[in-house]
Fold:
Amino acid sequence: MNISDIRKIELEITSNCNAACPGCARTQKKELLKIQSFGIDDLKKIFPNKESIDKKIFKFCGVLGDPAMNYECLDMVHYLVENGGWCQLSTNGGVQNSDWWKEMGELSARSNSVDINFCVDGHRETNHIYRINTKFDVIERNMAAYSAGGAGKASATWMYIIFDHNEHELEIAREHSTKLGFKFAIRTGMRNSYYNWVSVRKYKNKETKQIEENKQIITTTGDKEHSEKHKVLKIGKTIEKMKTIKNQSNDSQSTIEIINEAKNLSKTITCKLIHEGEIFISADKKMWPCCFLWDNAFSNKENINEKLSEYGGDWNDLNFHSIDEILSHPWFDKILEESWDPTHKKHLTRCMKTCSLNKVYQNKINYI
Structure:
């Protein structure tokens, strides 16, 4: 593969964020987090001309940060759009000022090449419970500025995760979205269906003047859960079975059956890179096939960093290599796909968990 085969690029232009969502890797692994960003000059080095940008989708999102926290974000969007790219930003909407968002709205309406996902999980009463540290008044102001800047023609979606605590504000948010001229969608995430999060919000007691904590368990139950959770639970059971036979003989009948079960599952993987022409660039300018494997690398899940250590420290670093050079690296070019085999020494169960059965694990988005 080379840059001409790449159709979509996810850009994590910063690992900085104003929020502290309890389900986010940056909140769960604070001790590992390093605030890093790259700017417009870095972007121009990675994508130096129209040929490398034209007709490609650029998704500003990531694992660790909110793209609007990067003050060169708007410049990057301008550059990509001016060279034929189409840009989408996922943001909690709680940073930057009205002028910034108004200009983004103007660019969206003028170019028809900018789309914003405002990830606002609730309305005035509830959004801050999961999107900790965000202020709804600021979000409301910024969404209004974006809408006004586009004069009704700016493209945007209010992306709403339904939890048990915010279900009652769903219709209020949908009506607000309609008034802004935005689309409205419900996003269902598998991890929210797996885990209960703990929201810890600090506030100052008006009587004692002391800083206290407000704790709340965030749950997702019933029809708010991911519709295919049962399939992912089956994948998880297969992965657990593979762990149990790690030190057993490979020629026993039960071991052979488990390995074949895992191999059959791996054959159903739909890979963002190989099958869909997508790459992911993290805030430290490392290139990965997807956000899932960058998440693994950040937390060193499955000892991924040790498994790939033989390649050195800069093998996928865009400070030292071009996209084409990294795509031609043996791991990207060949070993990644080979490693889907559960008996491969570089096998990562993350590929099987998130991308088998035609990406059954991944978010479901329903526009209403």
In short: The domain at 3-189+225-367 is CATH 3.20.20.70 (TIM Barrel). The chain has a mean pLDDT of 95.
